[in-house]
Amino acid sequence: MKNIRSLLLSWEALLVLVLIICIVLGSILSPYFLSAFNFYALTSNIMEIAIMALPMTLIIIVGEIDLSVESILGLTSVVLGILWETGHPLWLAIGVALLVGLAAGWFNGVLITRLALPSLVVTIGTLALYRGLAYVVLGDGAVSNFPTSFTNLGFGTIGSSEIPWSGLIFAILVLIFAVVLHMSRTGRQLYAMGNNKEAARFAGINVKRTKQILFMLSGLIATLAGVIFTARLSSARPDNAVGFTLDVVAVVLLGGVNIFGGRGSLLGVVLAIFIVATIQNILSLSNISGDIQNFVIGLLLILSVLGPNVARRIQVTITRRRMAAGSPKRV
């Protein structure tokens, strides 16, 4: 009974309620909201952000942050486009792009773990650095002559369903990340690092190596999102995914991951992804401008920081009162 009560009072339960309210509201505001095509549009438009949110979840849980993911996406998209345009096979272009993303994440990790620089400062710097490199490589141009077999990865669907291929990729990644975070020794180490880095180090956890791997993973996954984004738009441009970092951080924090590390679940992040996607979709169907949509995302980002903390304080207060009520009175 106590476990059921705790589950109903959890942040994830609140997110489920919010998602249901958003779905009901969307169906009332637009007759097209519950259509199969709109489901496809809703999911495909958020998938790159959703994919990048998975490694971001792990990074924030250990008490760090990576603000350079959108620029890694843009840079590797440009690398993919340049190699394809110059006559290289598509598989080789994708492979080189993945290596570039891995190297970008490695560089972030080296500055953070070896030079002990704050991840916030480092990744703000590389946010500008990698975007600048993208413009150096391609300039203001774009590559758009990709084959249909490639672009189908971005906006094609699985069989006769309205489920995009990117949705399948996301689902597979969610399963992998869920096992690592919630069912493995590595996941317990990540939470330990987020709660107390020094204690984790004394417990034998290689904190520097783990963080290095996480930032390399973030660069690699951002590149995968870049491949999907390039295929979906059929265009490799240096300004691809500008502003995506805000959305990625917003869904992770809205999912209940503590910005200071040590707390959070992948279930909450997945629910937050679909809440943000649903809200954006409702606003688009209601012909709300992009500026107002950005305002809403910014507001969600603030609420995502305040909400879980307020919820935890309420839970702690309720628990203390119950313990006080249940304790025997002294005569």
Give a verbal description of the structure:
- The protein is mostly helical.
- The chain has one domain: ABC transporter involved in vitamin B12 uptake, BtuC.
- Helices cover 76% and strands 0% of the residues.
- The protein is built from 14 helices and no strands.
- The protein has helices spanning 2-8, 11-29, 36-61, 69-85, 90-113, 119-138, 148-155, 165-182, 185-195, 197-202, 207-233, 244-254, 266-285, 290-326.
- Helix 2 runs parallel beside helix 13 (266-285), helix 8 packs across helix 9 (185-195) and helix 12 packs parallel to helix 14.
Assigned CATH architecture: Orthogonal Bundle
Helix content: over 70%
Q: How many DSSP E strands?
A: 0
Give the count of helical stretches: 14
Main β sheet profile: none
The top level CATH class name = Mainly Alpha
Measured distance between first and last alpha carbons = 32 Å
Which descriptor suits the 3D outline?
Answer: globular
Spell out the helices and strands N to C: HHHHHHHHHHHHHH
In terms of DSSP E residues, the strand content is under 5%
Low-confidence stretches: none
Q: What is the number of domains?
A: 1
Mean pLDDT: 90
CATH topology: ABC transporter involved in vitamin B12 uptake, BtuC
Rg, alpha carbons? 21 Å
**Structural class by sheet pairing and helices:** mainly alpha
